[in-house]
Design goal:
The chain is an alpha/beta fold. About 35% of the residues lie in helices and about 25% in strands. The chain binds S-adenosylmethionine. S-adenosylmethionine binds near residues 58 and 77.
């Protein structure tokens, strides 16, 4: 994780993937914020599951999850060349290439399904569900990492989730007592 932090703080900043002002808070606001969802007894990800990270950007949360959970197989979906190039380099440098792949694509153009589909800072929930639910296998779950507008976004998505095949949404907080604020996640199961 320290190697990934160093990569983000150097190459990531030089290439404009991470703002320079984020560097002092890389661990608290980005790395630990993502890690707490995957690491720990409350994690909704069962051992060995497949994970897609939609709009992975500089690798958040997908690369962090792969680092803290060596059992996961992770697909990073990112359409922008500059970001996909950085992700490929990071995966190779961190020695993750045997279980982390980079797909340079828009989520809506990917025709595969995964046990878990995640996204962080990509789109508001109604739009996000149109991209992530089709990528989730029936019985799988979308884990949308969200900020303070979470309740509002869940309300906005209520009308369309049934048509997409999604079940009841729940909001869960991870890292309580570890980070402040804890990480807020909307869990959306695909039921049909
Ligand atoms: C604000 S960045 C967030 C990056 C990262 N998840 C994070 O938390 O730092 C949003 C990312 O979503 C990607 N994106 C936008 N539309 C997308 C789509 N339709 N499918 C996949 N990725 C998309 C962008 O290229 C960008 O890298």
């Amino acid at each position: 994780m320290q190697e990934f932090a160093d990569l983000l703080a150097t190459t990531g900043v030089e290439r404009g993937l991470i703002g320079p002002r984020e560097v002092p808070r890389l661990w608290s606001r980005h790395l630990v914020n993502c890690a707490v969802v995957a690491d720990g007894p409350d994690s909704p990800m069962v051992p060995g599951c497949t994970v897609a990270d939609v709009g992975s950007g500089a690798g958040l949360p997908g690369v962090v999850w792969a680092l803290v959970r060596p059992d996961l197989r992770v697909t990073l979906i990112e359409p922008l060349l500059r970001r996909a190039t950085f992700l490929n380099e990071a995966v190779n440098e961190l020695g993750l290439h045997d279980r982390v792949e980079v797909l340079r694509a828009r989520a809506e153009d990917v025709e595969r399904s995964f046990d878990v589909v995640t996204a962080r800072a990509v789109a508001r929930l109604p739009q996000l569900l149109t991209w992530t639910i089709p990528l989730t296998r029936v019985g799988g779950v979308v884990l949308a990492l969200k900020g303070s507008s979470v309740a509002e976004e869940v309300a906005e998505a209520q009308g369309s989730r049934g048509l997409l095949g999604a079940g009841d949404m729940t909001i869960q907080h991870f890292g309580v007592g570890t980070i402040e604020p804890p990480t807020t996640v909307v869990l959306v199961p695909r039921v049909r």
